[in-house]
Amino acid sequence: LPLIWHQCLPEAVKDYQSAYKKYETALQKHNDAAQKHEADVQALRTQVTSPDLNPRQRTKLDKKIKELVSKGPKPPLEPTQRMQDAEVPLMLSLGAALKLLLGSPTSAMQRQRGTQLLLSYLQEFKRIYGVSAMVPNHHFATHIPQQLEDYGTVYEIWAFLAERLNKTLKSTNQNNRRGGQQEVTMMREFDRHMQVRAIVRTFHCSFRRATDVTPALHRLNMHQHLHQMEPMKLRYRA
């Protein structure tokens, strides 16, 4: 990871600087257009407040103001740097924290160090990318150390197996069946899937046993062939 950043970071910085210059130019144009747009809207609103305006004209002006406001100029998006120098220790902290916290088994010292690295990663992430880039999973991650202390290692409490089973059941073709038939269809499909897996596994094991025997037979044939060649060698020497 540090080598990749060392190789690609200068180009990323150069691209960001070029994009930011274009952004500043576009932002200046947007500000000018926004001022002109606001002046036009304000002029129409001034006309609406005129006492000499009849109701029909006032209705038309109100409609025109709404259309003009909805078509207001949108500000350009500020570019973001795709690679930053501070991301290297950030990713390394995350990797080390996951290595320590998700191990099986883990010691108290490993969990303590993993917690420190995880919190350091979250703080640096907030500093680099801002609060707007953070998601609920960042908050959920702060509960992992306490959950490990309460329930044991992640291999004992995670829900990967249950989630995989849910995915298998949800991918079943149910043919829009309801009223009790849906569960039966899911169980039949799951049983059919397990039978197919059992057949494939049996075939795979049989094939492996066959390939494992082949080298032994090959060595036996070579030994017999060499044994048959011994009399010929003796006659040649004689």
Automatic annotation (TrEMBL):
SUPFAM superfamilies: OmpH-like (SSF111384). Keywords: Coiled coil. InterPro entries: Skp_dom_sf. It comes from the Eukaryota. Residues 13-47 form a coiled coil. This is Uncharacterized protein. It comes from Dichomitus squalens.
